[in-house]
Batch of 3 targets.
Target 1
Amino acid sequence: MAKMQIAYEGNKVLRKKAQEVKVVDHLVGQLLDDMLDTMHANNGIGLAAPQVGISKRIIVIELPDDEDGPIKMINPRIVEKEGSVVGLEGCLSIPNVYGDVERAEKVVVKGLDEKGKPSRIEASGLLARVFQHEVDHLDGVLFTDVATNVRAYSKEELEQAEEEGRYEPALDTV
């Protein structure tokens, strides 16, 4: 398992629509594991392959205190959305910058698991937000493209947003 380099804003791979994975093999499995290691090393909760310079439709997610373990998904697509909620987001590829993003409260995501088997996940709350953020990465969309009030926030401003229920501290690590 290896830690990979994070691609930062300005890297062209972040603006490309990622390619669908045609074959799920040991190389894809290794990439998933390496992405998970990279996400953990950067204290992240979500990571898309373009964020490590690879234009493939692959994401990993692991929320704090999630007893079910990490989600590894290939070719994810959001097939249902419900509700709407605005929250403050950040991104590993755009450090120290935040903005308010409107996302669906609930989503249904379909794709393949790490073994290439069909997978369907119903998500709400923080998990739904992270799925939407990561799938946006696969389409070349950064959170700053869909956010308002984009700027650097002070620690005090982030704490206030958390108290108001607009910010989850883990969200600056997606």
Target 2
Amino acid sequence: MNESKHLDELGQIMLASECYVIKDGKVLMFKRSDTASKFPGFWIGPGGHIDHDEDALLAAVREIDEEAGVKVDLDDIKLKGIALHHHMDRKEVWVSFVFLATIKKNQKEKKEDLEGNAKWIPLEELLVMDNVFPPAKYYFDHVLNDKPGILYTNIQWKNSQLVKSLNQRVDKNG
């Protein structure tokens, strides 16, 4: 018999925002430092923990500015997914609010950050890169192509590799 568990029984709950900013066919990505404590060396959209005094949207805007030095207006960002990522090897369950943003004018990314480096990457190049964080790649199609609705996922990972997708659905009214 398969007994259902609450998420907090699987590991520490980690709330995070991540955002993919698009401008002129390029996506703003952030390469985590090779010495980062969480998921070192991977490319991912700017993002991170949600602070106690902010919501997921404000956290996304703050993280884009902190990690990449790019400013995003609240009118130019929208929720595209809520992803549950159970990292079995880390005993962590990440609840990631995934956003898509567009910016109206070119902005230069900051190259140096203690946690890694930001770079505008052409979409075609990004889709074939090897060192993109696998959980992020899982919802690239929905987010980067701005498909209608909000994608909901619940996925198990071990050593940043897919173990099993428990479910995935799109709320087209979102």
Target 3
Amino acid sequence: MELFEFLIMKYGYIAIIIILVGGIVGLPIPDEVLLTLIGYYTYLGKMSYVLALLSAFLGSAIGISISYFLGAKLGLPFLMKYGPRFHISHKKIDYTQRLFYKYGPILLFIGYFIPGVRHITGYLSGISKYKFTKFSLFAYTGAFAWVFIFITLGQELGSKWYIVERYFLKIGLVLFILLILISIYLIVRYNILKKRLDKK
């Protein structure tokens, strides 16, 4: 973390973008802890909350877009061959692939909150030839929700931001369950509205 702290303090928002691009593509970066640290810097007044949020969103969106285009152009063999070099194991690829074919759009949105999964959903979207408009709708809204929650959490916790690192697995699980429930509610509501419109 010391290296990332140094880079952010030296290069500011540009460093946030570059680090998160690398993190989403698959480099071993503690993204949630990093976002919470950025939130802490906004609490201290060292960074603008809005600019930090925009930079983090931009880095995440660019990162997952790169993954999408790599998947679309190079396919599953590329991911299987080079994924392990970026700590994307075959086991994670198989697991995420099964989830992706079952829950597709939902996984694109909530995948950011599941370590290991967010690094693969972009690739799988490209491999599956998802329309880019559909991909970007779910992936970018998920990216914004993810960076907003953790940066805001860091700002609200202030000097106690580090507890996110200590309790991350518990916090991540709670957020994941909450997002699943919200997603189910939105899907059910959408289907009900669609049926009503179809009847008219």
